[in-house]
Specification:
The protein has 11 helices and 13 strands. By secondary structure, it is of the alpha/beta class. The chain has a single domain, classed as NAD(P)-binding Rossmann-like Domain (Rossmann fold, 3-Layer(aba) Sandwich). The strands form 4 sheets. Strands 3-2-1-4-5-6-11 form a 7-stranded parallel β-sheet, sandwiched between helices. A two-stranded parallel sheet has the order 7-10. β1 (18-22), α2 and β2 form a beta-alpha-beta unit. α5 runs parallel beside α6 (157-177), α7 runs parallel beside α9 (261-272) and α7 packs across α11 (310-324). The longest helix is centred in the middle third of the chain and has 22 residues, at 100-121. The two termini are 24 Å apart.
């Protein structure tokens, strides 16, 4: 697996671009910050640290082109920047269900505030939407023209519907005010700096396997997911932001490799060398049975596709969690 830094350094920007990343201290935001700094950007990381962590960006603090602002984007923010990546929102069920009203607020009010800033400055803004807008899909694999199958009043709705409304607002700002938007739909992403307690399946399985604890599968384990390594996602995000064809999306950014949850559990146990057992519990409400992106549009419009296979990505992620547990 090539070093991301080496790859990024080979494509440094000539002009120093001032980039605002909301949720910049989160798992994805910290990797995006690092990547853009390596390309010569100035990066302003905005985070209220509800799920983000200063530890994720501690290694960037000595970089003169990096700064952190503690701020909740449900409150308007006034800055002078050249582009905006809007990543702010809890993304794991445990975290977004902890305060569902705030989850909706950051998805909707946060999007309105960031779009207002982009409108005033006449700059591009990228929205990190999600595969969850497809809900429990009745189309497989999921293409961007599929409208989804989402429960509007379930326990996951604060996130699913919040992100769907955010997409609506983005497209309305584009149609009404000509704001240059970019909308990507992110599929399950994993890698170093994931929160070990966020309950997401990859981090959960790795942490429990390293501790020798049982791995809990909800349902019979036949439900599928497609797992994308963080390096691939970051490159896809930047390709979308920088595309010169005025392509606004939405576009799926994910790895089409499809695995059952049981396959993942068995793979993690084997790679860790753990004696953990697999136990089964009831499936949570509205948990999707299948999830796999069709990335034909990303290949065509962005010349992007994922490069890191699951085994290599898991090796890097296991190595990270060994260092922090």
């Amino acid at each position: 697996m090539k070093s991301r830094k080496a790859s990024a350094s080979a494509h440094k920007s000539v002009k120093k671009i001032r980039t605002l990343i909301t949720g910049g201290a989160g798992f994805i935001g910290s990797h995006l910050s690092e990547y853009l700094l390596d390309r010569g950007h100035e990066v302003i990381c905005v985070d209220n640290f509800f799920t983000g962590s200063k530890q994720n960006v501690a290694h960037l603090l000595e970089n003169k082109n990096f700064e952190i602002i503690r701020h909740d984007i449900t409150i308007p923010l006034y800055l002078e920047v050249d582009e905006i990546y809007n990543l702010a929102c809890p993304a794991s069920p445990i975290k977004y269900q902890k305060d569902p009203v705030q989850t909706i607020k950051v998805s909707v009010l946060g999007a309105i505030n960031m779009l207002g800033l982009a409108k005033r400055l006449k700059i591009p803004i990228l929205q990190s939407s999600t595969s969850e807008i497809y809900g429990d899909p009745m189309v497989h694999p999921q293409t961007e023209n599929y409208w989804g199958n989402v429960n509007p009043i379930g326990i996951r709705s604060c996130y699913d519907e919040g992100k769907r409304v955010a997409e609506t607002i983005f497209f309305d700002y584009h149609r009404q005010y000509n704001v240059p938007i970019r909308v990507i739909r992110i599929f399950n992403t994993y890698g170093p700096r994931m929160d070990e307690n966020d309950g997401r399946v990859v981090s959960n399985f790795i942490v429990r396997a390293l501790k020798g604890e049982d791995l809990v599968i909800h349902g019979d384990g036949s439900q599928t997911r497609s797992f994308q390594y963080i390096d691939d996602l970051v490159k896809g995000m930047v390709a979308m932001m920088e595309n010169k064809d005025n392509f606004i999306g939405p576009v799926n950014v994910g790895n089409p490799g499809e695995f059952t949850i049981k396959d993942l559990a068995e793979k993690v146990i084997k790679m860790v060398g753990s004696k953990s057992k697999i136990i089964y519990k009831d499936l949570p409400q509205d948990d999707p049975k299948k999830r796999k992106p069709d990335i034909g549009l990303a290949k065509k419009m962005l010349k992007w596709e994922p490069k890191v296979n699951l085994e290599d990505g898991l090796k890097a992620t296991i190595k990270y969690f060994k260092s922090v547990i």
